[in-house]
Amino acid sequence: MTNRRVLVLVHKDLVPPDAPDAADVPTAAWRMEWDVVSTLRQRGYELRVIGVHDDLTPIRQNVEEFKPDIVFNLMEAFADIGVFDQNVVSYLELLRLPYTGCNPRGLTLARDKSLAKKLFAYHRVPAPDFTVVPLNRKPALPKTLKFPLIVKSPTYESSIGISQASVVANEDQLARRVQFIHQSIGTAAIVEQYVDGRELYVGVLGNLRLQVFPVWEMSFAKMGEQSWHIATERVKWSVAYQKKHGIETAAAVLPPEVALQVQHLAKRAYRALDLTGYARIDLRMREDGKLFVIEANPNPQLAQGEDFAESARHAGVEYGPLLDRIMNLGLQWRPSRMA
After folding, report:
1. Residue 11 lies in domain
2. Which whole-number Å values give the CA distances from 207 to 12, 317, 323, in the listed order?
């Protein structure tokens, strides 16, 4: 038990109620926030939870009034712009406040998928070949890219803008999907080689010394061969769709030497992007065993029952102690190490 003071930052629309109906929690948009807040309270922390949208003033005011020992950062956007979350963390550093999760540089590098892939190439971390189509430009493919390809936003997360139509098999489909990303998402489009294979996730915890959790896998058991086996928005967020198509995540069944190879590659990707705190590394493994890092997700979903927490539990780290360790990593982190 502890009397440490913790200021919890959440999106303004995701502040959990003080005493929600238990039946509402599993499907609530604020489920992760509730899991974190309720667990920290049970463990004896003194909490203050504030919702933030597009104004940093409440953070400064609450820091001056509450004088927290650490900020538990659950912000995934600022002013509804995902890539601005790193600026919130930068502000916390300017206030000389310890915080949980990834540092600003790691967030910047990981959020930009094209930049991350360039760093992977430099560090010889295998990743799919790709090209970027700027806004209002038509795609022009390099010779290294062959259909099928997958088209997505280079900065949006949580599978936003990803559907079955994201995998394209010809020039017409490619042009239409690039136009969709440009017009509907409002960003450039990243076009990368589609890797047909198993979808693997690896949770990584740490700053300098890393702990890698067991390899997790998304299963598409009931999805027919006519569908692309990819993590679309519906696959990730629609419970009804998951049940209909038998989509679930669980510990991957892999030979021990292959699991070690996957975990080692996840650590290399984590370090290549200067990540700290905790992250989930997404990979694909082809039928021939070749591995590709698809992307890194710093500060992933922390709700109980989600991939990161479940893989930690599989490694013997229960939910409460997991949150303790995430906070201890925040207290140990020194921003000057990135200078």
Report:
1. 5-99
2. 29, 17, 15
